[in-house]
Amino acid sequence: MANLGQVIVGFLIIGIVACVDSAEEQVVTYVFGDSLTEVGNNNYLQSLAKSNFPFYGIDYEGGKATGRFTNGRTIGDIISAKLGVQSPPPYLSLAANDDAILKGVNYASGGAGILNDTGLYFIQRMTFDDQIKSFEKTKEAIKAKIGQEAAEKHVNQAVYFIGMGSNDYVNNFLQPFLAAGQQYTHDEFVELLTSTLGEQFTSLHQLGARKMIFHGLGPLGCIPSQRVKSKRGICLKQVNLWVQEFNSKVEKLVATLNKQLPYAQISFADTYPIVLDLIENPTSYGFKISNTSCCNVDTSIGGLCLPNSKLCNNRREYVFWDAFHPTDAANAVLADKIFTTLFHKASSSPAPAPTPTPTPTPRKFRMRSINLN
What we know:
The protein is α/β, with parallel strands linked by helices and 373 residues long. It has helices at 8-16, 75-83, 128-146, 148-157, 166-173, 179-183, 186-206, 224-227, 237-260, 272-280, 328-348, and strands at residues 29-32, 104-106, 159-162, 211-215, 267-269, 289-293, 318-320. It is built from eleven helices and seven strands. It comes from Solanum pinnatisectum (tansyleaf nightshade).
């Protein structure tokens, strides 16, 4: 499963990029990720990483589970609603030639990782490589709809939101019964992760992706599934140090790829400090408890909120819903904070200078704020 930090800055950047090239064009997003950004792909798979049952969705519209790994909305759902746009639908819910593919698709799958053997015990899940292959099929369908030239322009201008890596730790390296933790030192493992990720970025670039946003990992050592491994229920310092090492290496990888890949505009978003503050100072954000989950499922293995689980009395008091994922209330507070900060800055900023005449040199990734009026 994913951690709380994985989507915060990513959706912030997506929100402010609503006009990349034209003030009249709405941004199109293609989402790659794991359970924190999933909106239902695993419902169509024979997977143990599913959330299409009670109590998931208990606070969602209609009180029904949708495949989102929380009791209600994701951060992406909330920010999309504020911007007046729909969250991209799950890839596996669409027909190959569905017109919806032109407005964006969500490929995220619970249990997915950078490495293909991550989350292997969930049986079926769409790994990052699987998600890239699915996007390739989407591009072919777009090409059949609007022609090759228009399809290339479409994929070049879209924004690609990528959130991967948590499962490679939580459901791979940190599991004592899996080979990765025994086969590799952490230095070797993080090199494997970043080299594989570099190949995956390159594959997306070859398919036409230019504006890619990768958000770093949050403090995984502080999520309930990791705290339970401590006798005192505290954050696991070593895990957090490993996460920070991963973040640092990915940030350097992104800088290198931006120099090597033509017209690449890859962004690295560091969510670590934001999420750590929420966990360490929950009362500042209106919460009471951040060290355990509302759905009482904090175990070193497992951690999903099953129908026979015991819920907390007040879901709004908890940062975490299950052992991995935030509550709807936490998502709402974070989304409101991000949205307010974003548009306060937008309203207080001077008008942008006129756009210069295009030149053959690569353009920088311009982040323009959205005018809601």
